[in-house]
Amino acid sequence: MQKGLFITFEGIDGSGKTTQINRFIAALERHNIPYILVREPGGTPIGEKIRDILLDVSHREMCAETEILLYSASRFQLTEQLIRPALTAGKVVVCDRFYDSTTAYQGYGRGIDLDFVEHLNAFATGSLRPDLTFLLDVSLEERTDRIHQKTKDRLEEEHSDFQARVRGGFLEIAAKEPARWVVIDGSTDIESISRTVWQHFIEKREGK
Fold this sequence. Notes:
There is one protein chain. The chain is globular and about 45 Å long. The protein has one domain: Rossmann fold. Helix content is 55%, strand content 13%. The chain is α/β, with parallel strands linked by helices. α3 runs parallel beside α5.
């Protein structure tokens, strides 16, 4: 049985994650590679209810500590209910965000102690780590242009200083683990990004 692989996509809102995830899934289907697609927060019935609470714009009074604990609760459920079983079955697990988003948003963005965030992330995942993480990086100006007309959730509504801290956090996290992360300029053309994603996936799958 082919070993299961855990692939995550990260980036600030408007970076192009959804487009690239959809193209990656289509490529997996063309090559008859078994997979599951999940998202954070959410992915399970329990997690989706937590997602609704987290992203509701009427919950602007939510404390940063409440926020990180809710994200972690959703993540624990997702990891145990879906991710681990799929990996054991040899599937590719594709996840739209994982614990790196918590480090970037609640650690760098909200200012929660990074050592605490690291320990909480380990607890919420049973120390499960992605095999490969793609960071779609775009400037804040590009982000604004892409999402200015959409209805924004609670996190997307955050001010530009917060978004800048999150983006910087992602880049710093990626720099610390170059063997796992692939940083891609999200402003380049969609097809080129898709080719880069697929190439790195195949190399990881073949153990190169």
